[in-house]
Amino acid sequence: MGAAEVIFLESGYAAASMDAVAARAGVSKATIYVHFQNKRALFEAIVHRRTDAVFQALQLSDSRTDVRRMLTDIALNFVTMILRDDTLSVYRVVLAETPHQPEVGEAFYHGGPAFTRHKVGEFFVSLEKRGLMDFTGTDPFMVADLFLAMLAGDAHIKALFTAKPDEDRINRVIDTAVDLVLCRCGRHDVSRPPVSP
Amino acid sequence: MGAAEVIFLESGYAAASMDAVAARAGVSKATIYVHFQNKRALFEAIVHRRTDAVFQALQLSDSRTDVRRMLTDIALNFVTMILRDDTLSVYRVVLAETPHQPEVGEAFYHGGPAFTRHKVGEFFVSLEKRGLMDFTGTDPFMVADLFLAMLAGDAHIKALFTAKPDEDRINRVIDTAVDLVLCRCGRHDVSRPPVSP
DNA sequence: GTCTATAAAGCGATAGAC
DNA sequence: GTCTATCGCTTTATAGAC
Fold first, then answer.
1. Average pLDDT over residues A109-134
2. Which of A184-193, B19-28, B116-125 has the lowest mean pLDDT?
3. Testing the interface with A: which of B143, B162, B181, B192 to mutate, by most A Cβ within 10 A?
4. Would the CB atoms of A109 and B146 count as touching at under 8 Å?
């Protein structure tokens, strides 16, 4: 991460000073103003870079026919992504600045949460086409929304405001969320793992 | 709302100046420092007040035996609460300041999101005792967590970063979330409304 | 392009009169 | 308790030398 990224993410927009950025980058302030028109422009550039870096990394693993396994894998990847320290920081900083620079909030939302939701929605569509899920009476993108929401849920809020929950709780949340989705949209003839004798 | 509330909520902690608070309150800066030791103390007091005001207002309506109706009512109250402008503002401002004043984030989490989740969890426990829901194989507080998470979901994130979603979408989210919960934890003999002929 | 030096303004907090 | 005035510091941004 560049110097400016570190300063902005750990101080917030208003409290981050161009002096601090310059000092950490090992250059003078005037040099920064050669490359960026002002503090806002620098911030905007950073948010775009971090948003892409974080949210485009989500892996949608596909293990043939075991739907429960697929959803669980995706869930774990997603939760790991949103609970990373830098993801939490960019979330806080962008959100705080959104009322004063709406374009930044908009860009983050579309390149981040909305992008992820759409990606998972499309994956659900492909699962339905392969006969592995059934969205009759609802809609894959809506279920993707609720699925990701459950996974983030209290764990995300708790991580943002106090501290990350322990791994046990996270795993129980994942299992229950997968349960709920499969109970409503699973094809029971294919989604249930064989019961051990 | 007091003057300090307005200034802090619309500017954020760092960008809010004591001059602005004083001007809006119609007093001098020195007068404020008689009542509060410093800027941080003033902020802390405000967060406590707003948190209580917002989150203790949630109504858990109880309509006898129609579980679907009860969950839908609670869902609507909850979504209305978290999408209010002042709720969104306090969420943004507290979150931005959490890395620098962890006690404030902690207090907000416990008096806000965690408080609500616990309240709904207890309500689910009471519904199970009355034979209206069935949490076999899971746990009412976990389901309460996931239920509220689904209701907030993308609508909350979108409202925080760009603009509130339209009412139609919110209602579809509520219906689907209630569906998912009842599909897993509903007592099918009592929860389904009669089919119209 | 990169530096040093500085301008111009805003900040939190306080002193001292009333 | 409340005011005016101000201290001491930090901020963004720029001017001008190299």
1. 96
2. A184-193
3. B162
4. no
CA distances (Å), B172 to each of A138, A147, B32, B62, in order? 9, 15, 47, 22
Q: Whole-prediction pTM value? A: 0.93
Tell me how far the alpha carbon of residue B48 is from its chain's centroid: 14
> CA dist B53 to A6, A123, A126, B56, B150, Å?
35, 41, 45, 6, 23
Q: What is the pLDDT of residues A123-135, one digit of tens each?
A: 999 999 999 999 9
The amino acid present at A169, given as its one-letter code, is R
From the CA of B2 to the C1' of C18: give the distance in Å: 28
Residues of B in contact with A96 (CB under 8 A): 12, 92-93, 95-96
Handedness of CA A93, A94, A96, A101 (dihedral sign): positive
User: What's the mean pLDDT in A30-52?
Assistant: 95
CA atoms within 13 A on the CB side of A169: 16
Torsion B113-B119-B125-B131 (CA) sign: negative
Give Cβ neighbours of residue B144 (< 8 Å, ≥ 6 apart). B117, B120, B121, B123, B124
Asked if the model's pLDDT at residue A197 lies above 50, the reply is no
Which tokens belong to A31? 């040099």
Alpha carbon distance A81, A77 (integer Å): 6
